[in-house]
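Is CU2-O2 cluster placement plausible here? Inputs below.
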Amino acid sequence: MNIEQQQLLYLFELPQEPLNRPRGKGSVLFVLENDDTPPLVTTRIAGSPSIKLQVPERNDVALQDLGTATSIPIGSAFSFFLASHRRAAKDLCDVFMKTSGAKDLMEVAARVHGHVNESLFIYAISFVILRKKELQSVRLPSFVEVFPSRFVPQETLAKAQIRINRMDPNQREPVIVEHGLEFSGTHLKPEHRLSYWREDYGLSVHHWHWHLIYPVGMGVDRDRKGELFYYMHQQLIARYDLERLSLGLPRVEKLDNWRVPIEDGYFPKLTISNTGRAWGTRQDNTLPKDFRRREIGEFVDITDLEIWRSRLLDAIHQGFMVDRKGNKVPIRDDVTSGQRGIDILAEALEADEDLSINYPFYGSLHNFGHDILAFSHDPDNAHKEEMGVMGDTATAMRDPVFYRWHKFVDDTFQEYKLMQRPYTEEELNFSGVKIEKVGVVRNDEADILHTGWNKRGFEASRGLDFNGRPVLVELKHLDHEPFNYHLQLNNRGRTAKEVTVRVFLAPKFNARGLKMNFMEQRILWAEMDKFTVSLKPGGNHVVRTSKDSSITNPEELTFRDLENSGTDPASPEATAFNFCGCGWPQHMLVPRGRPEGMAFQLFFMLTDYAIDKVTQPAARSCPNGVSFCGIQDAKYPDTRPMGFPFDRRPPPMILNRPVEDAADYARLDNAFIHDISIKFLADELKLN
Ligand code: CUO
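Reply from A.M.:
I modeled the complex. C-alpha cells:
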C-alpha cells in the first residue's frame, strides 16, 4: 500500500466518532476545511497528532446527491437483507465509485462521514475499495477492530471502560480484557454447547466478507455467483453438522414450517452502536409473524414466503423457470454445454432483484426469511426494538436459527441437485493415475489430529473510543495443530500429468453411532482442500500443508499489521489485496472432534486438470480462500460443479458393484478413503 492508500485506513477507525477525534493511536487527525463539528474538549491522554490529513471542501459532494443513503438512521442496524437498505448502499457506493484514486476517495468519504449510518459507511467504502482496480493493493482491516461491539459482549467492553475510568491518567499501558469461553448462554440448553463455534469471530468475519464480495442488488454479476451462494452456505451447514456430531448433538433440522414457534431463542448481548442501542432478542418459542415495518418501508407475509417456495419447488421439479416475459427457461446442470441451472435458481432464491430471472414472481425467499426471523420479536415496531442479529451478515451466524434457516435453503437446493442425473463412472474415473497411499502427519504422529483452544488479540480501541486509551481484547477460539497430507500417487502414463487433488472430510458415524450410507453422508462432506500438482511418470510423493488449504483465509489483518506492512512494493502485504481477506478462518479448518478421539474419514479424488482448468487471462489470485471466494475479476477456477463429486446422487454401480457408501467411490484408482481420528484436547494449544 502507498501512503495515500494507507491513509484510507483511518476512515475505518472509530466509525461512530466525529472525524475531529484523533485516529491512528492519536497520531492522525483529519482536518476538514470549513467543518462545523464542535472542537474536541476532553481528558484524553493521546498526545497531539503528528499527521494532519487536510480535507478540502468538496463542492461535488452535497448531501442531497447521496440519494437514499441518508435514510438509514445513524446508530441503528444496517441490513443487506432489506431492499431499502440495499438501495441506500447502492446510492452511496455510486457516489464513492465516481472517485479516482485513494486520495479522492478519502476526501469524498471524509465529507460524507457522520452524515450516513456508520455500518453503511464502512460497507460502502469497503465495497468500493474492493472493486476499484487502482485500490487493489489496499487490504481491509479486520472487521473485529472496526466494530468490536459486534463481536465482544457489551459487558466485556464496559469492564474495559470502567478500568480506564479508575486508572491513573498518566498510565499508557493498554488495558487488556479477555473474552474467554463465556458465551451468550449456559449449557442448560443443549444448543448453547455450540456457542463457541457460532460466536467465533472468524466465522462472522468470513460471512461478512463473503457477502461483501458477492452482494445482491448491487449490480455485481460475478462468474457463478449464484452457485457459490449455494455452495458456500451448503459447506457452512456441513461444517456446523460436523461440529454438532463432535458434541454428540444431532444434525441441524431445517426450518420449513413458519407457522409454529421457533424453539430456540437468542440473546446476543451485543450492541449496535456506542449509544447503547442493542440488537433485538428472541425468546424461546417465538412465533414468526408477518413483517410490517412501516418505518423501514418493508412488508412481507409468511404467505408470500410459502408462495415463493412453492413456485421455486415447481420450477425445480418441472425443470424450468418462467422469465418475466412468460418464457420457459430450462434449469439443469450440464458441464459439457456449460449450462448451470443452479446459478439461475440461486439468483432467484437468494434473491438478487437484478439477476433473478423473474423477481416479481419468485420473490425474495431467502432475504425475507432473514428479515422475518430478525424481526420476529417486534415485527411491526410496536416496541421500537432493533432487528435481531439475523439481519446483519456480520452477526447472523451467532444465532442458532441461522443454521435452521440455511438448512431449509440448502434443502431446496438439494431438491434441485437430486434432479440432476448422477455422474457416470466415466466422469468420476480418471484412468492412468492411482492414489497408492495416503497419510496425515501432525508433528511426528500419523492420522490423529489435535484441536484445542487458542486466543487472538484485537485492538478494540481502533473501533471504539475509550477516551483515547488503547484497549486490547483477547478472544478465545477453537484451533488445531497444523498437519500435512502425504500422498503417494502413481502416474502410469509416459508423460507428466497435471491433476487436481480434491480433499473432503466427514465423520465416519452418524449421531446414532452407525456407519453412514452414501446419501446420508453425501452433504456432510466438508471441503478441506483443492490443489493442482504435476505428476511425473511413475511414483510421486506429494506433501501438502493444512495451512495452504484452498478454503481458508490464513489470518485477519489488524490495523497494527497494516500500519507495519510498510510501502515496499515487493512486500507480501503490498502484493496482497483485499479480496484475500475472504475465506474460512484457518483456525476453524478442523472440527472439534472429541476428547477420546472421534472417527473421521478423509476422501481424496484426483481429476484431470485438463478438464478442470478454466482458460482465462492471468488474474490476481489469493494463495488461499479460492474454493469459497473465487478469484477477483476472473472466472471460478474449476469447471466442475462446486462440491463435485458429492453434489449429486451416485450412479447405481461403480466397477460393476452397487454403490452403497463413499468407500465404493474409492474403489476407483483415482479416489481414496482414509480413516483419521480428531482429538479435542480441551486445553490451550501449544502452537509453533
Ligand atoms: Cu449468508 Cu443467508 O446468506 O446469510
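Short version: Confidence is low (pLDDT under 50) at residues 572-578.
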